[in-house]
Amino acid sequence: DLVRSRGLGDVYKRQMKYIICILISFTFSALCLSQNELKVDVSYLKEKQFLLIKVKNESSSKSFGLFNGRIGTNEFDGSIIYIRESPQSPFSDDAMFLMWEYDEKADTLKKYRSMSWMNPNEEKCFGITLKNKEKWLNAKSIVVTTKLSIRIIKEGDASVVGKIKCFETLVNIR
Q1: What angle do CA 148, 151, 156 make, to 5 degrees?
Q2: Is 121 left (phi over 0), alpha (psi -120 to 50) or beta?
Q3: Rounded to two decimals, what is the model's pTM?
């Protein structure tokens, strides 16, 4: 027998690599933000002709960053709002809107930010105006699809890159 026998040290090293891979995989999957840790509520403020989007981080330990898209480009790779006449209607570019943070106390849209950070159990409001958008103002109801681009999820010292979460809401206009 010319092949040297492997000692137990080699076996333990292979097992350690396997255990480390399992632990890393478990950590990343635990850091993902599940659909029930994120709540989205959409309402229409008729007197202001305004869609109000409330986003709530219902996690008690995870924080995350919402990427809000880019201004001045045709790249809508961040969080956006789609408006459609029905769930069967196709998505279209003329019914796609960037999300702007909304200050309820001041009753105004805040200065645009590319990233909105959400701490555990925090709620933030976003909004889009429907003024001069007769197509949507004349509808009885609209379907609002909120696409949230979650870029970073943090829990303690660990962080991972997030992903897209979508929520669909039927909103009465009249």
Answers
A1: 120
A2: left
A3: 0.75
- Main-chain phi, psi angles of 141, to 5 degrees: -150, 160
Query: pLDDT by residue (tens digit) across 15-38?
Result: 545 444 444 444 444 456 676 788
Q: 79-112, pLDDT tens digit by residue?
A: 888 899 888 888 887 788 888 888 888 888 787 7
CA distance 158 to 139: 46
Contact 55, 40 (CB under 8 A): yes
Q: Which residues, 6 or more positions from 54, have their beta carbon under 8 angstroms from its beta carbon?
A: 39, 40, 41, 42, 43, 123, 124, 125, 126
Q: Are 102 and 111 in contact (CB under 8 A)?
A: no
Q: Contact at 8 Å (CB) between 131 and 49?
A: yes
CA dist 129 and 138 (Å) reads 14
